[in-house]
Amino acid sequence: MGEKVTYIFEHAINLLARKDDVSDNRDNKDVLWQVDLDVMDALFTSLVNYLQLDNAYNVFILNPRHDLKRAKYGYRRGLSESEITFLKENKSLQTKILQSGGVSESVLALDKIKRPLYEKHPMTPFTWTITEETDTVEWYNICLDALNNAEKLYQGKDTSDTIQNKVLHLLKGKNEDMKLLLEKELKSGGFSDFPAECLTDTWILYRFNCWPLRMGSCCWWRRCAHGA
Q: What superkingdom does the record give (predicted)?
């Protein structure tokens, strides 16, 4: 895919990672981090759409470089056990989320664009064998702008703000069971039945499978990963 495509995912991992334990004040390689899986899905989906690979099943194998201080990380769609505990004990945050009406700031806004792959040979079936950077430069620029805007959005946010934004995104997500359970727990304030989602090092969606090679020590998380 080229260095620019790889850089987008490297940048997203470093930018969108948050600590698994919200009470962990360390700043070293022993800290466990979680990367927002919904946002990573959005990036991969935008790349699939951009390259017009919608009708094919795609396997992405990544080897992203990362910050040495964030050597241990995995991907998570929902909340960690620590974040659920924080939300459970913070009644004012629960009230704030309920009063927000389910409106959240967009973490990553990406336009759905497609390159005219059939421009030169409109009647010939097209198959990707390898991509050059010129094939993805427009996608790279759009994603880089979106990530830079997301970085500005995260600036100055504390734990409460981050959890609120994540919960609101879950309430607007496609997982109906998750939304119903989350709404129930917010109204009751209990969060006794709300499960923490496991971290995962690979994930599978209906159009692609992603295997990042350069991960932290989290192979066992794969067993309880979303969609695995």
A: Eukaryota
Single pTM value for the model? 0.78
The label of the residue with tokens 């390689």 reads 29
What's at 68, amino acid-wise?
A: L
Strands (E), 37-153: 58-62, 72-76
Question: Tokens 């792959």 sit at which residue?
Answer: 117
- C-beta separation of 140 from 11 below 8 A: no
The type of residue at 42 is: A
Query: 183 burial class (0-12, 13-18, 19+ CB within 10 angstroms)?
Result: middle
Reduce the DSSP state of residue 144 to 3 states and report it: helix
Q: Give buried/exposed letters for 77-114 (b at 16+ CB in 10 A, else e).
A: bbbbebbbbbbbebeebbeebeeeeeebeebbebeeee
Q: What confidence tens digit (pLDDT) does each residue in 159-201 have? A: 999 999 899 988 887 788 888 888 888 888 888 878 888 888 7
Q: Which residues of 134-169 are buried (b: 16+ CB within 10 A; e: fewer)?
A: ebbeebbebbeebbeebeeeeeeeebeebbbbbbbb
